Task: structure prediction
Amino acid sequence: MTDKQSSEFDVPMDRSRRRFVGGAVASAVIPLMAIAPAQAQELEQLSEDDAMAKSLDYKHEASDVEHSSYKDGQTCANCALYRADAAGDGWGGCSIFRDKAVKGTGWCSSYVKG
Ligand code: SF4
Result:
C-alpha cells in the first residue's frame, strides 16, 4: 500500500471517529444538563446558625449585615458566586456553600462583585 492509498483510507476513519467522539460527548453532557436544575432545587436552605455561615457573617437579609466590607446594594443575587435560583423560590446555589442554598437577598463576607 502506498502513502496515497493509506491517506485515502484515513479520511473516512477520521470522520467516523469524530462522529463517535461527538456522540459520546453529547451523550455525557445532555444527562448532566437535565440533572443539574433538579439538584439545585433540592439543596437544603443554609441556616444563619451554620458554623461556616457564622464564620463568614452570612445573613439571609443583607440589610441586617453589620460588617465593615459590606456595601449597600450587595446581595447574594448579584454576587459572582451565586448560581441562579432554579426553583424560583428566592434561594439559589453558592460556590462557597456548595451543598446548601443561600437566600438571594442574603450576603456573606466572601461576596464577589458580579
Ligand atoms: S459567596 Fe456570594 S452568593 Fe455565596 S453566600 Fe456569600 S454573598 Fe451570597
